[in-house]
Amino acid sequence: MADVSIKFPDGKVQAFAEGTTPADVAKSISISLAKKAVAAKYNGELVDYLTPLKGDGAIEIVTKSDADGLKVLRNTAAALLRIALKKDFPAIRLGVASAEDDGFYVDTDKDDQQVSADELDALAVVIEKLAKDKLDIERISVSKADALAQVKDDPFSTALVNAVSGDEVPFLKIGDYQVLSDGAQLANTGDVKHFKLLSVAGAYWQGKSSNPMLQRIYGTVFFKDADLKADLEKRQEARERDHRVIGNQLDLFFVDPKVGAGLPYWMPNGATIRRTIERYIIDKEVANGYQHVYTPVLANLDLYKQSGHWAHYRDDMFPPMDMGDGEMLELRPMNCPSHIQIYNHHIRSYRELPLRIAELGMMHRYEKSGALSGLQRVREMTLNDGHTFVAPDQIQDEFKKILNLMVKVYDDFDIKDYTFRLSYRDPKNTEKYFDDDEMWNKAQTMLKGAMDDLHLDYVEAEGEAAFYGPKLDVQTKTAMCNEETLSTIQLDFMLPERFDLHYVGADGEEHRPVMIHRGLVSTMERFTAYLTEIYKGAFPTWLAPKQVTIIPVSEEKHGAYADKLAAQLRAADIRVNVDKRGEKMGYLIRDAQTHKIPYTLVVGEQEMANNSVSVRKYGEDDATAMASDAFMKEILADIASYSREE
């Protein structure tokens, strides 16, 4: 019997008998390693613990503490969920089963009705029994003809079988059950005991909206019960912070399918938050030398062909509108070509540079229905956009000014959890990126130099640049633990070339400017979603849609005093309402807390006699008596300081 030559991570090479499994290799290293191991990576591919290794190769033993070990556990949990589904619903049709960073899922389809969340506990009982029995998991090969016969009444499983190349289809034999194989598996079912079936949701077959909608069942699993409990607590916290949930509770926005997915309606409360953000940003930008403009949401398609967006971005653009006379209009996906037109409208002098143009510009993106999510992923959005046109020797100084402004804005919004990413092109991807090595090398060196001058930590990411230039991305985490880009600064030598931009220099000659794209706080939609989640709906006073609610003890006796106080507060631009619903006092106070209003004022005989108020802050149990003038000073100071502790 021939030997196989196996290379270890430390570079050592050892011969093993043909048919050796990762388990055999782990035992040859140490018994303790063999007890912790669950799989292996062989020549970079994740393989079963008991699968014979074929041919020479490099091995890495995968243990329960490794990320790949968790993936193997989740593959097995998904296989057991498939068995449980078939056991409880024999006629069910099964689609893709997958392990992912956040857990595992199985796609299903039924004739009568889809699997409901109420049925998950019963499915969990079946999985628990399979785990308790510690059934061996054996990988077997079935001829494609036999495999198709096994799944003949299931069009989705049939498609998965047909997608397998060759005449043999891998199946898993688990006890008396056989299921399609999905990824590396554990040696037996015993470790699938710390799990939770989480939820059900719709998912298009193969991710295409033109395909049938299936039911996706989500779950998570860990090797340790403590890890499962920590994960479930984290998920609960994420649900409580989900801007879609809070948006409904606080009546901030909604999406109406009659109008269209991804097209949010801003209710008065949400509109107030958005308006406050917009006024803040405009004032901040104007104070920093930006000139605000308005530009059309429609433009001739030729504009986006010239900019390169049509060639590089058309899959994310809505179809052009034929105006019938040869003109093709396009809903704009980006504001930069519009701001280029502003620059080009006049002959520019070097004395005007840096020329800073900004706009709260509405844009449209052709997002697939399955990708839409609340305010975070929409089809119509308003970007806090800005473009600076600079002379080449002004690039680094302007970059630093933009970054300092960005950090100041973050401080005002009390945003602390963010990281910097320098996003470069992938030089091998000439189809995506503008082909000019000198430009790219120069631009990337400039951005890196500016970051180093500011002594800021950053990571470098190849392949994350815009098609026209490198950029600095500010990365944050959403409440659902997804990483997203909150702000960006992009350096662009390409568009000034394409649009033949010039300025007249001190020498009287024409020179080419450089364009810096920047968005301080992303779109109004995404930023509002982000703030809703980090504040958990308890907006700081300066942002809160209602800053004060006044509750008269008796509408008849104290209503006029409450109205007088409200008028004084409104005169100071404080957002206030008087709650005259006539409900019990305790209910009205709890309701104000539920709606996370920063200040609740109760006024009765004593307050009316003393020209005072009884103040209860959000999240506090006790009320404080103070003169109405003193309260006015306190809330104005709170607003002026952006609700930060001094």
UniProtKB/TrEMBL annotation:
One Gene Ontology molecular-function label: threonine-tRNA ligase activity
Cofactor note: Binds 1 zinc ion per subunit.
CC terms in the record's Gene Ontology section: cytoplasm
Record bears the keyword Signal: no
Catalytic activity: tRNA(Thr) + L-threonine + ATP = L-threonyl-tRNA(Thr) + AMP + diphosphate + H(+)
Residues holding Zn(2+): 336, 387, 517
SMART domains: tRNA_SAD
One Pfam short name: tRNA_SAD
Domain Aminoacyl-transfer RNA synthetases class-II family profile: 268-540
UniProt xrefs under PROSITE patterns: AA_TRNA_LIGASE_II, TGS
EC number: 6.1.1.3
Domain TGS: 1-63
Enzyme class: ligase
Subcellular location: Cytoplasm
Cofactors required: Zn(2+)
UniProt KW keywords: Aminoacyl-tRNA synthetase, ATP-binding, Cytoplasm, Ligase, Metal-binding, Nucleotide-binding, Protein biosynthesis, RNA-binding, tRNA-binding, Zinc
SUPFAM superfamilies the record matches: Class II aaRS ABD-related, Class II aaRS and biotin synthetases, TGS-like, ThrRS/AlaRS common domain
Biological processes per GO annotation: threonyl-tRNA aminoacylation
UniProt entry tagged with the keyword RNA-binding: yes
Complexes and interactors: Homodimer.
Record-linked NCBIfam families: thrS
Family: Belongs to the class-II aminoacyl-tRNA synthetase family.
Name listed for the protein in its UniProt record: Threonine--tRNA ligase
Organism: Levilactobacillus suantsaii
